[in-house]
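Collaborator request, handled under Task 6.
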Amino acid sequence: MRLLELWRLSRVVYKEVSFQSIFSLRSGGILSQRDNASILRLVKSAELNILVNKALTTIFMLVFAAVIFLPHPFKTTYVRVPDELSITGDVSAFLSVVLFMITIMGLQVTTAFVSSDITSLLAPLPLSKSDISKVIFLCFLRMFDLPLISAAAIFVLNYGILRKSLLGFLSSFLSIITTEIFALALTVALSSFFYYKVSSGDGRTKWRSLLRLAFTIVWILPALGTYFVANFATQIAQSFILLAQIFSPVAHLLVLLYPFSFGFLVSSSTLYEGIDMNISRLSLFSSIAYVVLASFSLKWVLARMKGIGTPRVHFKPG
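Structure tokens returned to the collaborator:
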């Protein structure tokens, strides 16, 4: 079956997952008897809720990007640092926020996705196992499409296209794609851990009770996180710049750590003067290592997609 047809089919699965994420049908929630019109309104409401969630995530990431990438009066409060450290700090801050926002904001709907019986929905259709896996993965991407595309577009636009740098375009593209893959993998890992270690248990042990409390707090984090990011965007970016400045004497160690490795890489790719070639080479090698790790993470996510929605498969993290 062609990819476009599978993409259209994934929308049906997406609606089901949206519905389950809102009403927690897999957690024992029971809907009262309703007519078809009422059920249809509930489905549309659930889908709208997920859309609003994605839109808010996107808006907050774009606001953060505007604060740290565009010139404005508050930037005068930045400590005077070399341009390469300023870019390194801004890039590292943005990648960290993207990783945090996508992971936290997608946790609830991904938990519903992990727990949903998608296979029973697709089984009556004339689809091969490969097609079913593709539909499930496309449905998963639908839950994050707007934030993923927006974050990648604004980041590549700023460091690649506006700066008219081919190397800046390539380095920024690799940086944001790697970060988004990490975010998706982390979301799947946390969601599967929550569902199979917490929701599927009887909840009578102290350990499970503590885990339930922990993940209840995690589900509250999106509101707190978005408030923090929106109100302290300048301070967040400045803190990353200060970290880059403080550890500049040992930059050969800092450059090995994510997301600073990509920060130094983008900085080296967009600036052509005052660049330490040793740091540039280290940032390139460490970034390549993280890209390789991201490729394995993506393969892991794809492998997990084959087990999601299959009742007979015991899907356990790690």
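The cover message to the collaborator said: "Residues 36-69 form the longest helix (34 residues). The radius of gyration is 21 Å. Please let us know whether this matches your experimental observations."
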